[in-house]
């Protein structure tokens, strides 16, 4: 459960659970047990004082004393390594007035209130889970691999709630110099448990027969607790800056920051930049808001921002998602707790120390590693999760200590980390740990591009455009030694062409057009989707839509299977003043005809599937129709209104039917058509289709024809020859020349139909026309 409370506007708070009764100071000589109430009283006094402070940076060579109204100023202190002063005012000072006065002065570079940060934790008791990430990350193998090379001592500063220094599993791992910035003393304690848990993840003793295993608990890594958070998780900006300054002065190797806030601070950013310039690697939590917000310090340049995943490598819902996330690690842990206990925690607060612990292993092997080199190692060796390459959910992926430590111990070529490649890309981008080595891309064994890995670990390979679905193999090579190939599949990034659609009036209920085959077409009014449909394999589509008001602006957009969107086809609905008679085909069997255009009107008849009807009016979304045996009103969704000059295909559905020389029952019969005979439908009128059959043309009852609803072009399909020595001609008329013969069961692709002849392509690539009776 999360709680929030209102404080002065320059403060942000997160309440976390307090799970201890007594704590201990950090000095070896002092064994005095302090009560929780005593420490809370000290906290209260400390907090009241911090809320009266301002943080000021100024241009070099400027004497700040000359530029401040000292009427209400009680104290001014400077940092040793940072160009910042902390100014304390008494309770009667008008802070806003003082800030305005300072901002007007050109000698002042920056001025900020003493705002707060917050811890990123989600306590979850009782604990039942184990340290799954130890096995997942293959840490025992990593520890064995680096034994001979782990010769350097490493100090990790943990800026947090302090530490339970009496905990059995943290004995011998605490570096000298711990400091409490809450009380301004060397006596470190922990009223919250957060800092103790973070420290245990990094360096709790391993193989001591008790408790848990720290990521770097079997090594020369020490924890330097820097207590900056109050018992309720609140952290003042002043204390963050003090701790960074202190860490620089004490030559720490790594700083772990499992806290943050939404507000970016120029002073904090400059302090972090200063720490990085001193070779300190900074690791911070991405945040637990579960959205795309940037949290600081994690989102500053030079900081490794860590997100949280579960045991199945899925991103936790609480983990922040943005382009500043660099890496992920497990966010549900069991760790050291207060009073010698062990407890379960969740949050990005506990993903960060896993990464800090792994970074400390790197520094054990090579103490000269710079923050930029460490970042490259982390990014280049990560196990890619989510989309190919870096993404906003997982960053570069799951941290991979096995691969990264293996490289530091034996620097051979290893798989690179490659960004997603699309079918319109002409480069392959990525990161590699193997600086200076060659990187090669190939398709089916043929090299399509190569390059050398730059000093920052990045690479850029120029390649020709590849088709979507193509598999590209990428290797790193040096002195004849190659990495394991990395296979990446080219994705579809090419958007579909804009749909082709005709005019739409206020009486239109059928939208027909062409778009990319198998894409999804949507008709939208603003952001509202009116109707959508899947485009056929031949690139045609139709949708039945409710009548739209005159001057409505509609957009028609196509989305392909890869999620790429076309440009929108914009159409303004025009006015059709007098309803023009139309022809339509019924969609569905036993469709009700009503005696009016309201849903409650009486049913007076039914229509059959694919039956042709005449449409003579439109009201309230209902068409007035004339069918073969009845007339009345039918809802628009049950009719496919056929636009003029659109050609359709169909087949005879009756056992036999008469072909007439007109569209009336009394017209002369000129031929008899058999079941399944293919027809080209060129017109519909009064319940009859005008068709082109195998040898003639005329009018057929619409109820005897099954219409293929997709208009031209012809829907390509496969077929087989029914007889031996079937003639293939160079045209679709009986007198066309024979150009070859096909045998029974030969496979063909059917690409067109005219005058009862199929146009086919054989397996051998030959093309021609075969009478429909010879194809099944």
Automatic annotation (TrEMBL):
From what superkingdom does this record's organism come?
Bacteria
State the needed cofactors, names only.
Ca(2+)
Cleavable signal peptide: 1-25
Where it sits in the cell: the answer is: Secreted
Q: What is its main location?
A: secreted
> Which PROSITE patterns has this protein been placed in?
SUBTILASE, SUBTILASE_ASP, SUBTILASE_HIS, SUBTILASE_SER
Question: What GO biological process terms does the UniProt entry carry, in alphabetical order?
Answer: proteolysis
- Gene3D superfamilies in the record, alphabetically? Immunoglobulins, Peptidase S8/S53 domain, SH3 Domains
Domain annotation SH3b: ranges: 581-642, 647-708, 716-776
A GO CC term assigned to this protein in UniProt: extracellular region
Molecular function (Gene Ontology), one example: metal ion binding
Listed A to Z, the keywords are: Calcium, Hydrolase, Metal-binding, Protease, Secreted, Serine protease, Signal
Q: What are the catalytic residues?
A: 160 (charge relay system), 194 (charge relay system), 349 (charge relay system)
Family indicated by similarity: Belongs to the peptidase S8 family.
Protein name as catalogued: SH3b domain-containing protein
- Origin species: Metabacillus sediminilitoris
């Amino acid at each position: 459960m999360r709680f929030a409370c209102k404080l002065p506007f320059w403060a942000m708070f997160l309440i976390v659970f307090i799970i201890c009764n007594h704590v201990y100071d950090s000095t070896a000589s002092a064994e005095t047990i302090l009560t929780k109430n005593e420490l809370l009283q000290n906290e209260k006094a400390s907090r009241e004082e911090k809320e009266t402070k301002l943080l000021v940076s100024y241009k070099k060579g400027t004497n700040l004393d000359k530029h401040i109204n000292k009427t209400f100023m009680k104290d001014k202190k400077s940092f040793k390594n940072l160009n910042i002063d902390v100014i304390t005012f008494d309770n009667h000072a008008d802070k806003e007035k003082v800030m305005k006065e300072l901002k007007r002065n050109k000698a002042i570079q920056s001025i900020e209130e003493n705002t707060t940060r917050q811890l990123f934790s989600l306590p979850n008791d009782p604990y039942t889970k184990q340290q799954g990430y130890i096995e997942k990350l293959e840490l025992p193998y990593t520890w064995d691999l680096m034994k001979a090379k782990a010769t350097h001592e490493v100090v990790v500063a943990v800026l947090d709630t302090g530490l339970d220094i009496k905990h059995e599993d943290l004995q011998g791992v605490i570096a000298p110099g711990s400091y409490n910035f809450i009380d301004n003393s060397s006596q470190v304690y922990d009223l919250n448990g957060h800092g103790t848990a973070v420290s245990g993840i990094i360096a709790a003793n391993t193989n001591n027969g008790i408790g848990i295993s720290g990521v770097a608990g079997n090594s020369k890594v020490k924890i330097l607790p820097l207590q900056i958070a109050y018992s309720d998780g609140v952290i003042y900006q002043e204390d963050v800056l003090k701790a960074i300054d202190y860490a620089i002065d004490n030559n720490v190797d790594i700083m772990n920051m499992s806290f943050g806030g939404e507000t970016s601070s120029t002073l904090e950013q400059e302090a972090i930049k200063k720490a990085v310039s001193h070779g300190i690697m900074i690791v911070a939590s991405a945040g637990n808001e579960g959205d795309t917000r940037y949290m600081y310090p994690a989102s500053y340049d030079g900081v490794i921002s860590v997100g949280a995943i579960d045991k199945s490598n899925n991103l936790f819902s609480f983990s922040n998602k943005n382009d500043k996330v660099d890496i992920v690690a497990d966010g549900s842990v069991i760790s050291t707790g207060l009073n010698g206990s062990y407890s379960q925690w969740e949050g990005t607060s506990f993903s960060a120390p896993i990464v800090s612990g792994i970074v400390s292993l790197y520094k054990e092997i090579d103490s000269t590693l710079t923050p930029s080199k460490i970042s490259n190692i982390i990014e280049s060796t990560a196990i890619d999760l989510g989309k190919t390459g870096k993404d906003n959910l997982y960053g570069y992926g799951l941290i991979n200590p096995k691969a990264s430590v293996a490289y530091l111990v034996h620097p051979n070529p290893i798989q690179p980390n490659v960004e997603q490649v699309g079918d319109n890309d002409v480069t392959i981008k990525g990161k590699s740990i193997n600086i200076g080595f060659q990187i090669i891309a190939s398709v089916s064994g043929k090299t399509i591009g190569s390059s050398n890995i730059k000093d920052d670990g990045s690479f850029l390979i120029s390649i020709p455009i590849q088709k979507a679905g193509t598999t590209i193999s990428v290797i790193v090579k040096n002195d004849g030694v190659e990495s394991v190939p990395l296979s990446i599949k080219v994705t579809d990034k090419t958007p579909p062409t804009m749909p082709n659609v005709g005019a739409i009036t206020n009486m239109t209920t059928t939208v027909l057009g062409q778009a990319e085959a198998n894409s999804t077409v949507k008709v939208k009014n603003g952001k509202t989707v009116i109707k959508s449909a899947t485009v056929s394999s031949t690139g045609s589509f139709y949708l039945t839509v409710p009548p739209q008001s005159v001057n409505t602006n509609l957009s028609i957009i196509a989305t392909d299977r890869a999620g790429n969107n076309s440009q929108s086809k914009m159409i303004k609905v025009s006015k059709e003043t007098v309803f023009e008679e139309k022809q339509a085909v019924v969609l569905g069997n036993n469709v009700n005809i009503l005696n009016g255009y309201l849903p409650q009107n009486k049913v007076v008849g039914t229509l059959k599937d694919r039956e042709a009807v005449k449409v003579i009016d439109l009201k309230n979304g209902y068409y007035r129709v004339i069918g073969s045996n009845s007339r009345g009103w039918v809802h628009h969704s049950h009719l496919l209104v056929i636009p003029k000059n659109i050609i359709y295909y169909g087949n005879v559905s009756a056992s036999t039917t008469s072909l007439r020389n007109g569209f009336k029952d009394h017209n002369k019969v000129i031929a008899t058509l058999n079941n399944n005979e293919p027809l080209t439908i060129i017109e519909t009128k009064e319940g009859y289709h005008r068709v082109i059959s195998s040898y003639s043309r005329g009018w057929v009852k619409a109820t005897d024809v099954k219409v293929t609803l997709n208009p031209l072009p012809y829907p390509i399909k496969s077929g087989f020859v029914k007889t031996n020595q079937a003639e293939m001609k160079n045209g679709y008329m009986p007198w066309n020349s024979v150009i070859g013969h096909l045998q029974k069961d030969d496979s063909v692709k059917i690409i067109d139909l005219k005058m009862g002849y199929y146009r086919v392509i054989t397996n051998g690539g030959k093309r021609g026309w075969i009478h429909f009776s010879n194809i099944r």
